[in-house]
Amino acid sequence: MPSNQKDYKRKKKKHNSEYIKRIIWIVIAVVAIILIIMKVVEVDFNSVKRRFVDDNGKVSIDLETDVNAYPFQLDSSSNIRMVYQNDKLVVLTSNSCNVLNPKDAKPLNHFNHGYSNPIMKNAGNYVCTFDQGGLRLRLDNLKSKVYEQPIDNTLLTADVSESGTVIYATRSDKSKCSLYVVNKSLKKLINLDINSGYIVSVAIDSSGQKCAYAAVNTKNAKLVTTVYTINVGDKKERASFEYEGSNILDMRYCNNDLYIVGDDFVNTVTSQKRKHEAFKKGSANTVCFTYTKDGELLYVYSDYSSASENHLVNVTVGGRVRKKLELKQKPKSITCISNEICVLYSDKIKIYSLTSGDEKESFTCDNSVNYAYKLSTKVFVARSQLIDVIE
Hints:
By secondary structure, the chain is mainly β. It has helices spanning 2-40, 45-50, and strands at residues 72-73, 81-85, 88-92, 96-101, 106-112, 118-123, 126-131, 136-141, 145-150, 155-160, 166-171, 177-182, 188-194, 198-204, 210-219, 222-231, 239-244, 248-254, 257-262, 266-270, 274-279, 285-291, 297-302, 310-315, 321-327, 333-337, 340-344, 348-353, 359-364, 369-375, 378-383, 386-390. The strands form eight sheets. A four-stranded antiparallel β-sheet has the order 1-32-31-30, with no helix packed on it. Strands 2-3-4-5 form a four-stranded antiparallel β-sheet, with no helix packed on it. Strands 6-7-8-9 form a four-stranded antiparallel β-sheet, with no helix packed on it. A hairpin with a 5-residue loop joins strand 12 (177-182) and strand 13 (188-194). The N and C termini lie far apart (73 Å).
């Protein structure tokens, strides 16, 4: 009898083992078939992954939008700026700032700023709004106010880091300008008098430690813009770079290195000291630009100001230029979420693959659209006094 029980247990164990093996092989076969099918139809595996994984690497689902919530009415049609930030739409108008959940257009944060010339800078979970030419600066996260700070002298420009540290420049009674860096508790980390010129642009890296500012002055009867790099804790600048006769349009730290975008050049600076010329001064006419999620510059330029044909390239932090895409029409703006480049023209919106450069989709629009973002299967646009959805 015991022998029969042992045989029974042995046969049952063998049967279970074979059953598990069959299940495993069935699963492997199904996965293999799926992979073959996806390969045949040339599915973009990265785009599939992005449908289920958010910016923080957490599992999510495709964006399901309540289209009945749109169009979303704004309180003004002037000075509108729309930014996609950490899965939210941040919209600045001449009267207020709204942080919207794009799924249902519900405001997560709203405030009336009362600024004459409002400018907005965004990084991480932080929004810095300031009155350029005025005396007030405000820091918010995506849900609530952190502080609003009165400024002693006229504000020139500002920027914010992902840590909530703010860099800003003002006019000064003792020098041409003053440069400040303050953390989100309003502790001053940098307080410098600047005599090298009037500051027109500032930038701060994600950690709030590396900084840059651009100052305009005259030299030999010509306007010269000089970009200076400095670290928090330094008593003097690390390096400086002169640009005669060119305007600085933007400076931004990406992956700890600095992009400098001018009206006719693009440079990058690594380690706060080494300059790389992606486009030498005078070699390009800047049309528009944006930055990818990975912190690289997408740059649209033409060979001359009235050219109808434009070139879209990817510029790495080391100043290398790659992935040229020819655009037969001058775009108004470009944005990039995940693996898709959204190019806004005066009469259409085209979606291109970031990796291949192939055109994926096209949507019609009119010239009233000022901003466009492709989120999931829909395009969110700012037009006139509305935020709307195009499918």
